Amino acid sequence: IVHTRCQYLQLVDASFDAIEFCRQRFAKYSNISMQCNGADQLPQQASSLSLIYSWDAMVHFSYKSLDFYLGEFNRVLKGQGYVVMHHSNLGALVDKMRVFDQWNLNPAGRSRISKDDVALIAQHHNFEVVEQTLIDWECKDMDCISVLRKAAGVRS
User: Fold this and answer.
1) Which segments of the chain are extended strands (E)?
2) Model confidence, pTM
3) Angle, helix 63-76 to helix 115-124, in steps of 10 degrees
4) 3-class SS at 148?
């Protein structure tokens, strides 16, 4: 159904296996393309996208990785483009449970990031935080969905 609701869909992942699966799954659609991202930059041109959507990958990302990707999201998004991202909020729960710096030791492999960390990084990269919604995963408020909008008039 996605192929009928957007003009063009670019799928990007760091996993070659995930990209190959998508190539096979969406082979018949000419408005969907797939590619792996590089280590130093996303494979999109500046100001070329209107929406970035990430689900269940960024829950594992460190502060440094989130800073890198939000910087790249700012570069590749058009003015007032949106980011919808699912990320960890486990960092906000350190008073309630033991949380490790190493994500794979934490419940469901979550990183020690909070919604406030994401808001701070987003603002640093000229995003307005439109909404942040806490969600329960394995425990209450462990994850968050953040909606960000690139500030108007900001060049990447």
Assistant:
1) 9-13, 32-36, 49-54, 77-88, 127-135, 143-150
2) 0.89
3) 40
4) strand
Q: Do the Cβ atoms of 137 and 143 come closer than 8 Å?
A: yes
Residues 92/120, Cβ–Cβ less than 8 Å: no
Closest alpha carbon to 113 in 133, 140, 149, 142? 142
| Residue written as token pair 């070659």 | 16
pLDDT digits (tens, 9 = 90+) for 77-124: 999 999 999 999 999 999 999 999 999 999 999 999 999 999 999 999
pLDDT category of residue 49 using cuts at 50, 70 and 90: very high
Q: State both tokens at 117.
A: 């960390």
Query: How much of the chain exceeds pLDDT 70, in percent?
Result: 95
